[in-house]
Amino acid sequence: QVRLVESGGGLVQAGGSLTLSCEASRIIFSINTMAWHRQAPGKQRELVAFITSGGSTNYADSVKGRFTISRDNAKSTVYLQMNSLKPEDTAVYYCAVSAVRSYWGQGTQVTVSS
Predict the structure, then answer these.
(1) How far is CA 36 from CA 7, 114, in A?
(2) The predicted structure's pLDDT at residue 73
């Protein structure tokens, strides 16, 4: 059973930075897309960013220019560098990996204080 384990969340002041990591408990073969989603209280889960097997990236308009997604295929790990954080970025962040099947992490809390 493969598990995705997120880390790097926490409490930060507005304007600060955090880096989230998501590592698979064992190597996942034939990974297509790796992504980060988030869910704020009372809101639906939304896609923040994704990166394809070829390295192409896509971001939600709300995080463009502030967040950077990257991946390490050898480690089946995906990262999310978050800069210039805003209070509206407060949410539980989930990583997701699409391969032969899909995998989801358990989520990590990010709280941005004003």
Answers:
(1) 12, 23
(2) 87
So what's the pLDDT on residue 43?
96
- The residue with tokens 């210039």 is 84
Q: How far apart are the first and last CA of the chain?
A: 40
Where does residue 100 fall: left (phi above 0), alpha (psi -120 to 50 degrees), or beta otherwise? alpha
| 32-60: average pLDDT | 96
Residue 15 amino acid letter: G
Cα distances (angstroms) measured from residue 112 to each of 20, 25, 64, 83, 104: 14, 29, 17, 11, 23
Cβ-contact 93, 20 below 8 angstroms? yes
DSSP state at residue 105:
B
Helix (H, G, I), strand (E, B) or coil at 12: strand
